[in-house]
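Researcher: Go.
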Amino acid sequence: MNYYFLGIGGIGMSALARFFHRRGDRVCGYDRTPSPLTDQLQAEGIDVHFDDNPSLIPPDIDLAVYTPAVPQETLEYQALVQRGVKMEKRSQVLGELTRGKRCIAVAGSHGKTSTSSMIAHLLSKAPCGCSAFLGGISKNFDSNLLVDTQSEYVVVEADEYDRSFLQLQPYMAVVTATDPDHLDIYGDHRHMLEAYVQFASQVSAGGRLFVKEGAFLTADGEPVIDYGHHHHDHGHHHHHDHPSLAAPLSTYTAHGMEADYYAVNVRTYHGNLFFDLRTPDGVLYDMELQGTALFNVENAVAAAAVALSCGLDQYQLRHGLKTFQGVRRRFDYRIREKDLVYIDDYAHHPQEIQSTIESVRYLYPGKRVVGIFQPHLYSRTRDLADGFVRVLQMLDEVIMLPIYPAREKPIAGVTSSMVLRKMDTMSKYLCTPDQALELVPALCPDVVLTLGAGDIDRLVPRMESVLRETML
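Model: Structure:
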């Protein structure tokens, strides 16, 4: 088969491109700008170009795969439509590839990349094995793709944008969080929640559904799904029955004793996190996560619940969690010295930013924290402006870069300075990336954070080298 990818440099698109290429299919594609990911694809033998030029599309395409992030006015998109080439969204292709497999799908407004990467790592270390299509570069695999032709399990990140996750028919599913996001698609939070309920209802009858405690509640605390009557007796499995759910539902949380799976006695020692895991079958003591954020305890609880349900024993689980190295751009240590720490994180939603900053404050109490944030999308900045103001004020110094537009046209009055103006602090700056490189060392930070989902990743290696030169 000959595949053509529009937006091949996207994290989800590149995993599919790699899969088909590895399978022996012919793969090529277009992306707007070169990146470390497109460099890697080219190094692997995949033809990628960066000029929106229909004459560069090969004549014999069997399927064109595209992402909603590529505007329909793109010349190549128009040309493919006019040529009558069969076209499918990334989510449709992923749905087809996972059908007939034991698909473990992780959905949520945040936490899904770390959780799905953790599940993939746990299963890959166990006899059952797994394939995986991930939304980030797992440090354990050094890739966003894992292929195990012998395993019936395939772990995928289930993206809620454009209702993509409704293309999946999971065997097991996790819902990590349902904070308001992508309201340009859903209109309001309730409609977004209804899409998650639809996703949950697509889990097969023989499988399992794991939902973060409270994820199916509206802002008013009203459930959008009937959890049923639920008593805790930790000697037995309990499931909430719901008429629209085929699969039994279990809840999890990092703290709080109402869920089926939860962590207690969370503590830090030499930069590593330890916790005891309560399950319906008993307690697993002293689980260890190495060099990671506090919020990964909750992701580990979800991943452990899935792994145990797939038949892993406590020794396989313990070894898997301890050897999980994390995901690039997810609480990613770039410098970790006594006098200076630099962490890069993909956080682009207020709740994610808050979790990252809280983790830093927990791990480095009393330290001076400087954060550089690049907002992602005009619509998200407009819809969540007050949330960004609230969480960014948790930093000692705030540096904001201009908004990264991705697929969007500018919205009048929506800028990074709009957010900065609302902040009740003097320690705030609006910069270009080049200016940030000069400013950060002058602020004498103990901890530096880069935050955002746009092209701020291009700044990261430069920031690391400047900090090493000037501060170490």
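Model: The chain is about 30% helix and 25% strand.
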